[in-house]
């Protein structure tokens, strides 16, 4: 959905230099067609296998995006009361919502019970006890899945790997049968499934399949114990291509591998993809402010910074940076940096890059997931607007913050 036509970089049918000139920079731009196509790739591949696609709201929680996915039939994976509020505001179907997370607060559980969500993915026995008590007070039954930790190495960045014993997530898979047994004493809980999630930005999906096999074996054990397990929630985690030429795992191939494992079990399957739906569908537009040389090092100073996109600083993540208008000059090697007063404020290091000049616009690619949602006001920088492209049309779905927004809620 992002492509060059002649020398101009487009999102669908919209030349992005026009958007940058009119909306200003920095600005996030998303392709609705790309988001829907990525969602559809999951849905199509599942075919007639009973399934739920619960888009992971944390990846990009813009109301317009959630509404787009809700209209396409998506469910949602939430990790906070705030995300539930967003799903409600976007018109999402709460009967397709799963609530994940290791630290659910009582108020958040109350809200989720009131909203009638599908199920809770629980990470401790204390959490089960809390949900049971709150469900009892409300006179309802709450469905749950235990998030098990399958002790599988996702081979991704250590900060976003979650499936090893040493991580804070889930309950050790070997202990799960006992936990399900003990949960029978909770009169207001109903065991519905088993969940797991081993990490994010996973480029080789074999570790996920390894986890699935362990979870399937557990589901068999639980059913033998008389526990009515109906669904498996296999989390998110499929990676995307951040480097030019990198090969992302094929969504259809991954789902096909799940289908072949699940078809005969009678279990329905849920997934919680975030990055693989929103990530490739977004770019961050920035304008070149200055070029400068410090000794042998060349810097391109742009108006987007680590407060807009923290992934390079936090994970040393790579995002391709391309000009919105190609020129004929030979490429350069430079650091692309922002205006924030930290050496960690870079978008790219020692990068082979188009020879962009002050005033030129660039796009920081594959920033639709974990981009804006991780933005902050550091250095008192208003957060960037978000723009949604639909064919030849584009509209602002979140306006640029003002200085007034920066001090909202503060008192002298
Ligand atoms: N389900 C659970 C329980 C999760 O913890 C996550 C992501 C997902 C689903 C969605 O995973 P995805 O399909 O997007 O890989 N800030 C980091 C990513 C953190 C991911 C946390 N959990 C980044 O910028 O790379």
Write the layout of secondary structure elements.
Elements: E1 2-5, E2 8-11, E3 14-15, H1 16-23, E4 27-31, H2 32-46, E5 51-56, H3 63-71, E6 75-78, H4 81-89, E7 97-99, H5 106-115, E8 119-122, H6 125-138, E9 142-149, E10 171-172, H7 176-183, E11 189-195, H8 206-224, E12 231-233, H9 251-262, E13 268-271, H10 275-278, E14 282-294, E15 297-302, H11 311-315, E16 321-323, E17 332-337, E18 346-353, E19 361-364, E20 386-390, E21 393-398, H12 403-407
Parallel strand pairs: 4-20, 5-6, 5-13, 6-7, 7-8, 8-9, 9-10, 9-11, 11-12, 12-13, 15-17
Antiparallel strand pairs: 1-2, 2-3, 4-14, 14-15, 14-19, 16-19, 17-18, 20-21
Question: Can you describe what's shown?
Answer:
With 412 residues, the protein is of the alpha/beta class. It is built from twelve helices and 21 strands. The protein has two domains: 2-30 and 280-407, Lyase, Ornithine Decarboxylase, Chain A, domain 1, CATH 2.40.37; 101-271, Alanine racemase (TIM Barrel, Alpha-Beta Barrel). It is 29% helix and 26% strand. The strands form three sheets. Strands 4, 14, 15, 16, 17, 18, 19, 20 and 21 form a nine-stranded mixed beta sheet that branches. Strands 5-6-7-8-9-11-12-13 form an eight-stranded parallel barrel, surrounded by five helices. It has a three-stranded antiparallel beta sheet with strand order 1-2-3. It starts with a strand and ends in a 5-residue tail after the last helix. It binds ligand LLP.
Summarize the structure.
The chain has helices at 16-23, 32-46, 63-71, 81-89, 106-115, 125-138, 176-183, 206-224, 251-262, 275-278, 311-315, 403-407; strands spanning 2-5, 8-11, 14-15, 27-31, 51-56, 75-78, 97-99, 119-122, 142-149, 171-172, 189-195, 231-233, 268-271, 282-294, 297-302, 321-323, 332-337, 346-353, 361-364, 386-390, 393-398. It has 412 residues and is an alpha/beta fold.
